[in-house]
Design brief:
single chain, 206 residues, mainly alpha, two-stranded antiparallel sheet, two-stranded antiparallel ribbon
Length: 206
């Protein structure tokens, strides 16, 4: 619950980005990501940092994040990297919608799956995926200036991405990265193919 509460609080990044410029957002996100990334690196090479890290955050870490033998990024690093990539490479409205889904819908899906998930597939449940989809549809319907058809496509692709693990070789990609990137790419592609005349308003999220 503590982990999910922290995860949910990352929605503040999307809300703040709606009201500031891209340059200001990058000015805030670069040091934020760099700080988390530095701790991730140091915990693998510095015993004092590793001891402090596992003593402080051990109760909230997943099994693979507790491994000391393998280099990995924790959820906080991945979520801030995700936000940074959204701001760097995608129009503001698309970035806000995609990041909001990983902040809110991923949390809703996880909690629903834990409590009500009876129909399992892999590590997920149909109930959790349904909760992800419904909350995603609500999110894209509320994001200003987002074409609802493009938004629905983003919601569906985000739901599918969350439901299945994506691996490169033997390395599992963190869904804090894959969900927003895949959904944002699908949204941009939808605009380029079907709504190119609406692309200009994607810089306005108010």
């Amino acid at each position: 619950m503590a982990r999910k509460a922290i995860h949910l609080s990352s929605i503040s990044i999307a809300l703040i980005y709606c009201h500031i410029s891209r340059d200001v957002a990058l000015l805030l996100l670069w040091p934020l990501f760099s700080g988390f990334f530095l701790v991730d690196l140091l915990k693998n090479v510095s015993e004092p940092v590793a001891s402090w890290y596992h003593r402080t955050f051990g109760a909230m870490l997943r099994e693979h994040e507790l491994e000391k033998e393998k280099m990995h990024l924790n959820g906080a690093t991945c979520i801030t990297l995700s936000a940074l990539l959204m701001v760097l490479f995608f129009p503001k409205v698309i970035a806000v919608a995609a990041f909001s889904m990983v902040a809110i819908s991923d949390t809703v899906a996880a909690l629903t799956g834990k409590v009500f998930g009876k129909h399992r597939f892999g590590h997920k449940s149909l109930e959790g995926s349904a909760a992800f989809l419904l909350s995603s549809i609500l999110i894209v319907s509320l994001v200003p200036n987002l074409n609802i058809q493009a938004g629905l496509l983003m919601a569906v692709t985000a739901t599918v991405t969350e439901a299945f693990e994506i691996r490169v070789g033997g390395f599992k990609l963190d869904d804090n990265l894959t969900i927003p990137i895949v959904s944002a790419l699908s949204g941009v592609l939808c605009y380029l193919l079907f709504f190119p005349e609406q692309f200009a308003v994607l810089s306005i999220c108010r």
